[in-house]
Amino acid sequence: MQAVHRNLLKNPNTHLLLRSLSSSPAISSSSSSSSSCRRKPPISEEAQQLELDSLVDRFKKCSNNYRFRRKHGVYDLTVRRLASAERFNSVQDILEHQKQFSDISKEGFSIRLISLYGKANMFDHARKLFDELPQLNCPRTVKSFNALLTAALETKDYDTVTKLFHELSDEISVEPNICSYNILIQALCKMGSLSSAFSVLESMEKNGVKPNLITFDSLLNAFYNASQFSDAKKVWGEMEKSVCVPDVMIYNAKLRGLVSEGNTEEAVKLVDNLRDQGLKPDVFSFNALMKGYCDNGNLEEAKKIYDELGKNECTPNRWTFETLIPCAVEKGDLAFAVKLCKVSINGKWSIDVSFLQGVVDALVKESSKEEAQKLVEFAASKTYHASVNGLTVERDEGVHNGIFWYDFPSRMGKLRF
Asked: What's the half-sphere exposure (Cβ side, CA atoms, 13 Å) at 141?
């Protein structure tokens, strides 16, 4: 994302647009002489709405430039920003504005708009645009069909996914491909209809569509998450009959299954077997092992696995820290918890603010108020990516000028000792 932002900043109009996505940070970075984090007064609701009005106006003006219309990242960020503020009319306003451009006759551009409606949880608008494509001189192929299915999936309208798959494909004479089937399987798995999801394999075979690793990964994760281990073995059997050769992603599903079953030691053996097969475990493999040990309250073994990450040239991710930090706090290893917090902040991983707050609270409880204060100041002084309610945002004075604090003042503003 940083690379995208650097390119965007070359365009002065884009720079203005990015700045309109943010406001002054609610908490300022602490100076060397300051002993506490100071917060600026929160922006008023009226000011926020005016800011968003300005964002919409600037976005529409910038989109008149065809080069700007190629900035996928800005479109995505703007729609997410408006949707998070529940400005759905504004989302419709900026996306409807795009129909006047010749780009709309290109399926790729229309697919982007359909996908953006899906990300904004506005499936009805995604469907309306899909239906309008012929009038906009835009072809409808399996690609835009899949985009519509994905929009329904993202809005968690799983019944609609299954209905569209079976009815719309015939209506518009589109032959579902492997991507279409994978979306259907994911929807059925989300609905808890695992037997129906498994039966899709038979339909694929009848229609000459070969399953791929994504197909089996979706099924395996669903069955393992539901603790249906015997059915997961059936999926493995189907995969062995196909031409698919399991990769690390597939084995990670099995690792998570073993861990959820309480067989952490078996999971460790599986990782060793991966190496014997010439496969390299990745961060998700090690995360599964750490979760297994943390679930068992074995922080020391989890720490050993954490050390293995570097030795295996794996970079930790958000789930690494969100697994280890609570366990470290629970076991009273606050020094390790603070270390993890600082590593995650320095590395710009999108950990939820609540994990930092948990460490701060534990430090205060242990009469380490000074350490708690230092951690709060450290978090406030860094460029910091964080995830709140599933939306990743960032605080970077050079790019967003504090979007993190502006978007979620009620959450980050409470991070204090």
From this structure: 11
